[in-house]
Design a protein that fits this description.
This protein is α+β, with helices and mostly antiparallel strands. 49% of the residues lie in helices and 11% in strands. Bound molecules: FE2/S2 (inorganic) cluster (FES).
């Protein structure tokens, strides 16, 4: 298993926790760090975060499952969140989602056989002015045509090969 947290991260978070009145403030930061290192957050990651913060695993789990950008199951190297909220939906988001499902040959919640892409429906990505929008990692893209989406996918494929 890949490392959940580096020694440096462990030190940094331990110092931060000691100075906080409410250590739970760090739940998302810790979960994100585990996810960045490991690709997703396994049960051991939830247990580790709970231990660092002095919380129960259930308290961490409640936060982890609330946020759709925290993955509690393995995902592809590039999880693609497709916005299905009203602005994007009314500006072609549905067709964009259908196109990406066909282009990648997977449905929502599935990962391509090469392990690169996972498609995930998402509520508003905060980019309504750029509808229809998708998010890959920390990057938000929009407004997108189906050709734009294909170019993004192709660029990520090339990046993975590079
Ligand atoms: S509705 Fe799609 S980004 Fe807000």
């Amino acid at each position: 298993m890949m490392e959940l947290l580096t020694a440096e991260q462990l030190d940094k978070f331990t110092v931060q926790v000691a100075g906080l009145e409410h250590p739970r403030e760090l739940i998302i930061d810790l979960l994100r760090s585990v996810q960045d290192n490991h690709g997703w957050v396994p049960d051991e990651g939830v247990a580790l975060v709970a231990k660092i913060l002095g919380l129960t695993p259930l308290e961490v789990e409640e936060v982890a499952t609330f946020y759709d950008k925290i993955f509690r199951q393995p995902v592809g190297r590039y999880p693609i969140h497709i916005c299905d909220s009203i602005c994007c939906w009314s500006r072609g988001g549905d067709a964009l989602a259908t196109h990406l499902r066909e282009h990648l040959g997977i449905d929502f919640g599935e990962t391509t056989a090469d392990g690169l892409f996972t498609l995930l429906p998402s509520c508003c990505l905060g980019a309504c002015g750029r509808a229809p929008a998708i998010m890959v990692g920390q990057n938000t893209y929009g407004p997108l045509t189906t050709d734009d989406a294909d170019r993004i996918v192709d660029a990520l494929r090339q990046e993975a090969q590079g």
